[in-house]
Amino acid sequence: MGSGRGDGTRSVHGRGGPRRGPLVAPIAQTSTFTYDSAAELRRYLDGTDPELFLYTRYGNPTLRELEERLAELEQADDALVLASGMAAATTGLLSMLAPGDEVLCSASVYGGTARFVRELLPRFGFGGRFVPFEELHDLGRHVGPRSRVLCFESPTNPTLRVVDVEAVCAEAHRRGLLVFFDNTFSTPLVQRPLALGADLVMHSLTKALAGHSDLIGGALCGSTERIAAARGLMKVMGGCLDPHAAFLVLRGLRTLHLRVARQNENALAVARFLEGHARVAAVSYPGLASHPGHALAARQMRGFGGVLAFAPKGGLAAAERVFDGLKLVARAASLGGVESLVSLPVHTSHHGLSAEQLAAAGVDPATMRLSLGVEDAADLIADLDQALERA
Ligand SMILES: *Cc1c(COP(=O)(O)O)cnc(C)c1O
């Protein structure tokens, strides 16, 4: 047997069902794969044997294992893993564009994605144009002859506003656009954008899918053709995932349903606590009946996610005091891990924006974003309570 073969690396839970061998798939921590013969190499080149690999940037059994799991989770034909969420965003968007095409992008997307659309696409001859959150349902004013892709997220970062994903995908398709959707905030357990009409879905694996804040990774999920196009680009642009990181994501996925359920429960408990707190001015969490997108979220999501936003009374100064006073919740960017994290968007994702730009993004300067981990809800509530009382 040529070791170019990926034998022994399919998990017992893979498509073949239970089999003998290691319970956990070994990591194919290798850059290259050996071949027995020119005939075997020719079979690799034919593409007829999915168990033959040549070089890890082109494909690797551990990466393939993760891609198959992610495709199952998103109920997609196929998936591609990449070095980061941003590698997924940039490779994915470029894979949908022809020379001169334009991306319409929701104004409420991840900062890195917004920067790619605003600064990089125009440098390479593509167009990038932003659509305010409120206008995603009617793109008439924004669509031009070169518009090709609509890129959006729901719930939005950091304000947790909810977009009607199915209606916006239908509007985009009516206007002849493809839809690129970032599902990082929700995970496929909470929301399945492909079933709601999206053409290509991305994830930052860094967040809830890996779940332990110990790696950077990204993924794309979609039809066989869309993933093949993205894979072709990735092979040349070079943003492949490392097999060891893929192994860690596979390990994280084993507890995804437990972690996400607990994060959702914690987020709802903490949101309800904050909503009733005398020192809190506003709470945004789609699971609260007071949230304007609650009914819509209940329809298109299963659970309401593990991230919420709130603003204490007293503006940014009070928010900074609450931030500094937290003892259990860690002050850090990122989300979706087992530890609860708090961030101040005016100092991270929305740093440097004017008061008018913040207002346009719907971000109160005192906004605190809280990503719930899997701790005991009572401990989290006690920590927030003491920080709010002392502020
Ligand atoms: C973190 C994040 C990204 C970027 O992912 P990286 O893995 O950091 O490159 C993109 N979109 C969303 C919604 C994110 O939270």
The fourth-level CATH homologous superfamily of the largest domain is: Type I PLP-dependent aspartate aminotransferase-like (Major domain)
| CATH class wording of the largest domain | Alpha Beta
Domains, number: 2
Structural class: alpha/beta
Major β-sheet profile: 7 strands, mixed
Quaternary structure type: single chain
N to C succession of SSEs: HHEHEHEEHEHEEHHHEHEHEEHEH
Strand order of the largest sheet: 1-7-6-5-4-2-3
- Regions with little confidence, pLDDT below 50 for 5+ residues: 6-13
Distance between the termini: 67 Å
Mean pLDDT: 94
According to CATH, the fold-level topology of the largest domain is Aspartate Aminotransferase, domain 2
How many distinct helices?
Answer: 13
- Shape call: globular
Helix content: 25-40%
**Strand residue content:** 5-15%
CATH architecture of the largest domain, please? 3-Layer(aba) Sandwich
What radius of gyration results from the CA coordinates?
22 Å
DSSP, total strands: 12
